[in-house]
Specification:
Layout (H helix, E strand, L loop, with lengths): L10 H10 L22 E2 L24 E6 L2 E6 L4 E6 L2 E2 L3 E2 L4 E3 L2 E8 L2 E8 L5 E7 L6 E8 L8 H4 L3 H13 L5 E7 L8 E4 L12 H13 L8 E4 L18 E4 H10 L3 H11 L2 H10 L14 H5 L8 H12 L6 H12 L7 H4 L6 E8 L2 E8 L6 E8 L2 H19 L10
Antiparallel strand pairs: 1-13, 2-3, 2-11, 3-4, 4-5, 4-6, 7-8, 8-9, 9-10, 10-11, 12-13, 12-18, 14-15, 16-17, 17-18
Helix pairs in contact: 3-12, 4-6, 4-7, 5-6, 5-10
């Protein structure tokens, strides 16, 4: 398959800026029902004043805003910091410390610093709590020379690279808020992040912390964890996995119609996971990766607090026990942004993932809402009480990450997703100078 090439943002430029300022209906992956979080009825522009209003005449803050949590991206790994909980986590190709308490963590001037020792290895860190800035981590193994790592700091949301340009995205918040308010049967949330620079890499959200069941959107994290291991050289997508008749489940997917046992390559499992939202591929990959824990470790290392993988696809018994997968629009865009910017995967794996998302065959939501031929890369999620579509608008010069999540009846949720998707598209294709301020 051909892969899409998308430009990586230059780390040095980002740091400098921060310092200066398929067709047919998708079916549910399981008959799951249960309570969902009620949305807050407020617009969250993502950057501005504390009341969530648009900034005034001078939108540039005196200093970039700090976050309670941030993570340092470096080749092959991440280093996560929780400044309120005074915990850190190192997760890279050479190991995972898990969440480690650092009661002596120092937080001053928007920077968290300290040192922990895990398994005889010391980790000395200085990580700003400001996205797009630069942090450092010194890994000091016993009886070996220390290794100093530097990289970009990631927060959710990332601050805009150009706050002035970012204000031009704020009217979209009001338009989306009206769509959300009209969806009386479907608590809804939406997060949008500019990836092109046209709006200064601004992020906006309406009910971005809404936490519905994740449905098949959780498959994105399964794929990222697999590709992370490919990047580390721990596995190859040419490796095969034995799939047996006991692995077969229904719902969405193509593997269920094949004859088993047979060996299936990791590449085909990864492709089918997204292209067909294949439930068999998802469950086989969960087992291959070592269960829920590694995927949840990925989620935790990126400080995505609303997301969890707690059951396999179509495991109704687990759902009845209250074991459910959840996520939020903010967490989805946090993942999509990190993938796009090359902060969690290599460029080759990033391109492969976006290529799989471009091949998506369940196209009744985002693609159905847009004019024919608009390039998108996306992943759906459907349950009887949830309807989602998330991904990338790949309109040249206006690339954007989006997450449209709803709870409530799937049929009306589908329509709400389509309305949100079209609202974003119409805004993006409106000339910036012609955008109407609200």
């Amino acid at each position: 398959m051909g892969s899409v090439r998308v430009p990586l943002k230059g780390l040095a430029a980002a740091v400098a800026l921060a310092v200066v300022a398929t067709t047919g209906p998708a079916t549910a992956d399981g008959p799951d029902r249960g309570p969902v979080a009620e949305p807050t009825q407020q617009t969250e522009p993502g950057y501005g004043d504390s009341e969530g209003h648009e900034p005034g005449l001078d939108p540039t803050p005196e200093r970039a805003p700090t976050s309670e949590v941030s993570w340092l991206s470096f080749p092959g790994g991440v280093f996560a910091v929780d400044s309120l909980g005074h915990t850190v986590r190192y997760r890279a190709c050479d190991g995972d410390t898990g969440r480690v308490a650092d009661p002596n963590m120092r937080v001053a001037a928007g920077v968290a610093s300290g040192a922990v020792v895990v398994g005889g290895v010391a980790y000395r860190y200085r990580v700003p709590l400001v996205g797009r800035s630069e942090g450092t981590l010194e890994v000091i193994p016993r009886h070996r020379p220390p290794v100093e790592l530097t990289g970009v700091v990631v927060t959710s949301p990332q601050p805009p690279t150009d706050p002035v340009a970012g204000t031009r995205l704020f009217p979209l918040s009001g338009q989306l808020a009206r769509v959300v308010a009209d969806a009386s049967l479907n608590p809804s949330g939406v997060t949008v992040r500019d990836l092109s620079g046209r709006y200064g890499d601004q992020q906006i959200a309406v009910n971005g912390s809404l936490r519905p069941k994740a449905a098949s959107v959780i498959k994105l994290w399964i794929l990222v964890e697999l590709l992370r291991r490919v990047d580390c050289g721990q596995v190859s997508l040419d490796d095969g996995v034995l799939v047996t008749p006991e692995d077969i489940v229904g719902g969405t997917g193509q593997l269920q119609f094949e004859t088993f046992p047979q060996v299936v390559t990791l590449h085909r499992l990864a492709q089918y996971l997204i292209k067909y939202s294949d439930n068999v591929a998802a469950n086989v990959l969960i087992t291959y990766l070592g269960g829920f824990a590694p995927v949840n470790a990925l989620i935790d290392s990126m400080n995505q607090r609303s997301t969890i993988l707690a059951r396999r696809m179509l495991d109704s018994a687990a759902a009845q026990r209250g074991e459910e997968n959840y996520t939020s629009p903010d967490d989805v865009v946090s993942l999509l942004g990190a993938v796009w910017d090359g902060e969690i995967l290599t460029p080759a794996s990033r391109d492969l993932m976006i290529g799989f998302m471009r091949e998506q065959t369940l196209n009744t939501k985002i693609p159905a809402a847009l004019p024919p031929g608009v390039p998108v890369a996306h992943k759906t999620g459907d349950l009887p009480d949830a309807s989602h579509d998330v991904g990338y608008y790949l309109i040249p010069g206006t690339e954007t990450a989006v997450a449209f999540l709803t709870a409530g009846p799937m049929a009306t949720g589908d329509e709400t997703v389509r309305r949100m998707a079209r609202t974003v598209y119409d805004f993006l294709v409106t000339p910036v100078d012609g955008a109407v301020e609200e």
